[in-house]
Design a protein that fits this description.
By secondary structure, the protein is of the alpha/beta class. 38% of the residues lie in helices and 19% in strands. Helix 5 links the parallel strand 5 and strand 6. Bound molecules: NADP nicotinamide-adenine-dinucleotide phosphate (NAP). NADP nicotinamide-adenine-dinucleotide phosphate binds next to helix 1.
Amino acid sequence: MADPTQSLLVLGASRGLGLGMTKEFLARGWAVVATSRGSSEGLAELKTRHPDRLRLETLDINDPAAARYLASGLGDKRVTILFVNAGVVDDKRPADQSEIDEFTRLMTTNALSPIRMIEIFAPLLATPGVIGVMSSGLGSVTNNTGGGWDVYRASKAALNTLLRSRAARHREGPAHLAIAPGWVRTDMGGPTASLDVATAMRGVADVLISRIGSSTCEYLDYKGSAVAW
Ligand SMILES: NC(=O)c1ccc[n+]([C@@H]2O[C@H](COP(=O)([O-])OP(=O)(O)OC[C@H]3O[C@@H](n4cnc5c(N)ncnc54)[C@H](OP(=O)(O)O)[C@@H]3O)[C@@H](O)[C@H]2O)c1
């Protein structure tokens, strides 16, 4: 199963799901470039175990100039999967009570920046390759019958829409995947979430790998089931 010629570039990997995804692909024998905006004990520990297959880089996804600099520094490196994991949550107030700065922070980090990052790093994508973003089940407009998490939901729905727009401009491929990872025990998901990081990221890795060579745009959960947009 190990295949070091396959590589993942994951943005926002300091902890939680991004760190778990890094761990999962390293365990599968892949080479990984993992970025974080600050230092990460988890990534540093993985680096000591996989010095040759893990490359660590610093990047705040809200800084496109830094991303362009990093992309040029990666040179002719080719990645099989380009995945934007980074995301933030707010205090879950109803939208009408959201401060403009907070609304902007969520929309920028969760929707605009991931799409910008994809455009900046897409030239590094191998053929065939896969582009993925960490969406959320809460990003489904169809399934939003309960409300709550107004701005976070809207930011993930915006991310899904922006991803579909990009996919429509690139019908020849690669695959564009919006991933709903499930409710996972991380700092964001909290201690009572139903899934552990390893289970969710094992499923997400299977889903991403299954779409190498495809040119579809899909919204999928960690088991590979379609989520209603
Ligand atoms: N956990 C869940 O149940 C769940 C469910 C659905 C979707 N998601 C999504 O999954 C993704 C990861 O969530 P998580 O549960 O692992 O959350 P988390 O534990 O809060 O981790 C968030 C990650 O995003 C990074 N990040 C945030 N803003 C960034 C920026 N501007 N530049 C670079 N990195 C940034 C954080 O880096 P720092 O360490 O520097 O803050 C951290 O690595 C998010 O997109 C989230 O919306 C999570």
